[in-house]
């Protein structure tokens, strides 16, 4: 069909395939597309990674959408955990087949198209993706939307798909063009529908692609003709967000479900609501009508799945089943031997409920419905005996539709009065019959229990970060507790259920503090770690304290005799980045023999770990797996996408800067030691308190000795450095022995360092001391005193 003036976009291609039948998650290439690369220099880019198993067979969060292939008995689930999964419903013992992974946020909607050969998905990561549904790999990525993409609509007779979301835009895509895209031919043409004033949450299109209807937080339905991309009218009546829309095949009627708890039946020809269905006690989130458009199934926040008679509105609704949590999607399968409903909820399970024979199921043709709707009699009778389905022929000019003269006049008047050109009646005509009171569905449910259940996994709901910023404690929806290592990117152990609060208390009691260098996101039900420029390199720690491969690491000799210091420092953020991009060619280190070695000599992370580069707003730029960063296509995209703050560390090999703490060092007020200097000092934040004590002892030796007084003993570590060489005389040894055992005492046994009246542990560092004990603003103030002064004060 002829399309109006188009917009042209270059789209990123998904070139990677998921692993074979076992369903290994793929890390295909998705270009930043659409000229986005030129804007990266002006936008902050963050790196994220997900700590997870290599194969995630089970939905880890709610399932937003479902599609079913009756020929191959395959069910597709669109998960809030960002994964599309395929299940074989003919194998109830082991239904999992494969995972389709390329999205980085909730998958909000999916549709099967091209005789179920392809699948289209949309996500909160702002992308629309085209998949090969048989082999499970991403064929192309459409990056036209600027915000969450919430809904898709499919016209199977024309192979067109429409997408819409929170950016208020609707785009129409030719599926045959999308499936033919290649790496060299990656330009796609789309038409857009503009005019929505609020975020779009629902979308529908009839099979012949002559009508698109959208629902939004504006609480109205807008109708477009996709052939001309022109708005046709606006339907008012709901009092809250329109969450679900169904269009009859002939385009004459629309059903809409809203967060206001009602379902409305609209006549397109009359541009008004002709019936309101009352029965739900909370918002209606999903609708599904049968092919004959005489029976409707609905559900939503109240978890009731109801069946309605569209033909005879006087029939009470029937309760099909009662789910245990809010329903996100109802999918009707009529082609099966016994019709049934697939139902997904905010829980992770997906259930199949058999459909019994309903007392109001009809065998008559749709045209007989005019006998049930007096409000539609005039419009259908004026059509020269044609069925209601003929309304579609007049859709191109709704103001001249086959409605009564008064209805046409009202529509024309409203078009002139509407400030934005919408052809909207100035006021909503009353329905043909007064709305009935809230219907109570018949009890008990017609389907007492499901006959198939795809069991989901658990969703992580709560987390706590350890004080040393190394470990992540989590609690999931089953109250199970687990401990993760954020640096090594793996789960360490499962802990006893119900132990979360006690473990948090134990973690909190540990007197150690490391600055935050990452943030945690649980939006997909799995721990996603975000690294950003301003915090990523804040965590310098002692290698000895970290326990990371202490015995196997090369050390730089930093003291006399080539003996390495036992407390050399490592940076958590820098090491993790090196591990995540260890296969990226520019980061590899050339060896003397001409080979290469990875930059991170400490550890590697699991190779299946997903890595995501995104804008700080959440808009995804690129997703890959750790093991795939050495690929030719991935390397090319990384060269354009990785920001300078990362390449400075990985490629230029510049070490992150140490974090400094400024402080004053004064004698304790009751101490016998007089003030030395009033200088403002500065040191690395991980400097241990024992080093401050050594500094005090050194100051005593050089600046505060009274005339004739013997020098205080050297700190133990300085004694080790100043041992006489083997060929020296015994005079030095005898001189050392004259001072007795005092000479062997380390500095922390000679002097105490305090904050206010609290004596600090010599093993504590400055940042920990400041975090836990310094309650004032400004620079830190440390006090020192001889240990003998405290003993003397205690005797008094």
From TrEMBL:
One of its GO terms (biological process) is double-strand break repair via homologous recombination. It holds the Pfam family DUF3337. Keywords: Repeat, WD repeat. It comes from the Eukaryota. One of its GO terms (molecular function) is ubiquitin binding. Residues 361-387, 399-449, 703-745 are annotated as: Disordered. WD repeats lie at residues 100-141, 142-183, 193-225, 235-276, 277-310. Residues 728-745 have a biased composition (Polar residues). Residues 426-439 have a biased composition (Pro residues). CDD domains: Ubl_WDR48 (cd17041), WD40 (cd00200). Residues 401-418, 440-449 have a biased composition (Low complexity). Belongs to the WD repeat WDR48 family. This is Uncharacterized protein.
């Amino acid at each position: 069909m002829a399309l109006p003036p188009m917009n042209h976009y270059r789209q990123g291609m998904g070139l990677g395939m998921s692993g074979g039948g076992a369903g290994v998650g793929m890390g295909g290439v998705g270009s930043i597309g659409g000229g986005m690369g030129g804007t990266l220099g002006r936008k902050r880019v963050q790196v994220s990674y997900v700590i997870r198993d290599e194969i995630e067979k089970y939905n880890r969060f709610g399932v937003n959408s479902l599609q079913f292939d009756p020929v191959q008995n395959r069910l597709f689930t669109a998960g809030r955990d960002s994964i599309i999964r395929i299940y074989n419903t003919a194998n109830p013992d082991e239904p999992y087949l494969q995972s389709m992974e390329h999205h980085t946020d909730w998958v909000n909607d999916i549709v099967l198209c091209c005789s179920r050969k392809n699948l289209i998905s949309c996500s909160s990561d702002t992308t629309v993706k085209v998949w090969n549904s048989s082999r499970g790999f991403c064929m192309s990525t459409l990056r036209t939307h600027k915000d969450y993409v919430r809904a898709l609509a499919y016209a199977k007779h024309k192979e067109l798909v429409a997408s819409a979301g929170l950016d208020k835009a609707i785009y129409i895509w030719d599926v045959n063009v999308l499936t033919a895209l290649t790496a060299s031919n990656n330009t796609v043409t789309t038409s857009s529908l503009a005019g929505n004033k609020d975020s779009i949450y629902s979308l529908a299109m009839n099979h012949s692609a002559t009508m698109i209807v959208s629902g939004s937080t504006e609480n109205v339905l807008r109708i477009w003709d996709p052939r001309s991309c022109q708005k046709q009218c606006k339907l008012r009546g709901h009092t809250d967000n329109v969450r679900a829309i169904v269009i009859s095949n002939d385009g004459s009627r629309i059903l809409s479900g809203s967060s206001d708890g009602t379902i409305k039946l609209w006549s397109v020809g009359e541009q008004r609501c002709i019936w309101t269905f009352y029965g739900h006690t909370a918002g209606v989130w999903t609708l599904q009508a049968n092919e004959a458009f005489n029976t409707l199934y609905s559900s939503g926040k109240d978890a009731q799945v109801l069946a309605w008679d569209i033909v005879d509105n006087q029939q009470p609704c029937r309760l099909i089943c009662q789910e245990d949590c809010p329903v996100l999607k109802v999918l009707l399968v009529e082609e099966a031997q016994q019709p049934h409903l697939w139902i997904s909820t905010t829980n992770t399970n997906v259930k199949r409920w058999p459909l019994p024979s309903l007392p109001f199921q009809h065998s008559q043709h749709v045209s007989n419905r005019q006998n049930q709707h007096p409000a539609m009699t005039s419009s259908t009778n004026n059509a020269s005996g044609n069925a209601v389905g003929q309304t579609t022929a007049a859709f191109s000019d709704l103001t001249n539709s086959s409605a009564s003269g008064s209805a046409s006049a009202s529509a024309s008047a409203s078009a002139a009065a509407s400030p934005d050109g919408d052809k909207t009646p100035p006021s909503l005509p009353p329905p043909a019959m007064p709305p009935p009171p809230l219907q109570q569905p018949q009890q008990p449910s017609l389907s007492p229990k499901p006959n198939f259940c795809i069991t989901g996994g658990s969703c992580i709901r709560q987390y706590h970060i350890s004080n040393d910023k190394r470990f992540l404690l989590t609690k999931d929806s089953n109250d199970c507790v687990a401990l993760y290592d954020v640096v090594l990117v793996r789960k360490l152990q499962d802990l006893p259920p119900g132990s979360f609060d006690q473990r948090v208390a134990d973690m909190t009691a540990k007197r150690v503090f490391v600055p935050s260098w990452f943030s945690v996101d649980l939006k997909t039900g799995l721990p996603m770690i975000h690294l950003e420029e301003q915090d990523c390199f804040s965590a310098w720690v002692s290698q000895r304290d970290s326990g990371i491969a202490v015995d196997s690491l090369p050390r730089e000799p930093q003291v006399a005799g080539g003996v390495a210091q036992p407390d050399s420092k490592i940076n958590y953020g820098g090491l993790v980045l090196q591990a995540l991009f260890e296969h990226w060619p520019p980061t590899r280190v050339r060896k003397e023999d001409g080979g290469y070695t990875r930059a991170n000599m400490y550890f590697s992370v699991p190779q299946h770990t997903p890595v995501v580069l995104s804008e700080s707003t959440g808009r995804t730029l690129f997703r890959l797996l750790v093991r795939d960063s050495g690929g030719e296509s991935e390397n090319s995209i990384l060269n354009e996408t990785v920001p300078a703050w990362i390449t400075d560390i990985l490629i230029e090999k510049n070490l992150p800067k140490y974090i400094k703490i400024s402080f004053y060092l004064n004698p304790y007020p009751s101490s016998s030691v007089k003030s030395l200097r009033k200088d403002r000092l500065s040191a690395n934040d991980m400097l241990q308190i024992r080093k401050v004590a050594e500094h005090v002892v050194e100051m005593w030796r050089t600046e505060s000795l009274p005339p004739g007084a013997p020098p205080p003993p050297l700190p133990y570590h300085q004694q080790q450095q100043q041992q006489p060489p083997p060929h020296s005389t015994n005079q030095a040894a005898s001189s050392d022995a004259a001072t007795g055992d005092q000479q062997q005492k380390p500095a922390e046994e000679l002097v105490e360092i305090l904050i206010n009246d609290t004596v600090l542990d010599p093993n504590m560092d400055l940042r920990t001391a400041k975090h836990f004990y310094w309650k004032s603003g400004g620079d830190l103030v440390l006090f020192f005193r001889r240990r003998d002064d405290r003993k003397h004060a205690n005797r008094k």
